Amino acid sequence: MNVLERYEDSHQHPLNRSLHAIGIPLIAVSAIGAISPWRPFGWRRSTFVAGMAAGWGLLFAGHYIEGNRPVVFSDPSVLISAPGWWARRTIRACLRR
């Protein structure tokens, strides 16, 4: 089973998927904002750090609801594949409409 299949398998509950659909982009945008010299709306780095914490909170809440451990604990490479999983699911959902 490859990383994306294992990741997909551990995200079956609809609420977990919804929380990941919000949390993953929140983490990604916040991480970029935290390291970028550009400050949209005059936001401080601490705002982006709080965004990352909120995103991770959503992911952990989703796994609590699903009743499993996040895959990232057993395979850190999922940090790279998670945005791809999110993009693939989002594109599929948009094409169905």
Radius of gyration: 14 Å
State the end-to-end distance: 30 Å
Relative strand content: under 5%
The tally of helices reads 4
Portion in helices: over 70%
Described by the principal axes of the CA atoms, the overall outline is globular
The description of the largest β-sheet is: none
Decide which structural class fits the backbone: mainly alpha
- H/E element sequence: HHHH
Number-wise, the strands total: 0
Catalogue the unreliable spans. Answer: none
Q: Average pLDDT across residues?
A: 86
What report would you give on this structure?
The chain is mainly alpha-helical. Helices cover 72% and strands 0% of the residues.
Detail the topology: elements first, then pairings:
Layout (H helix, E strand, L loop, with lengths): L2 H7 L4 H22 L9 H22 L11 H19 L1
Helix pairs in contact: 1-4, 2-3, 2-4
Keywords:
globular, mainly alpha, single chain, 4 helices, 97 residues
Brief overview, please?
By secondary structure, this protein is mostly helical.
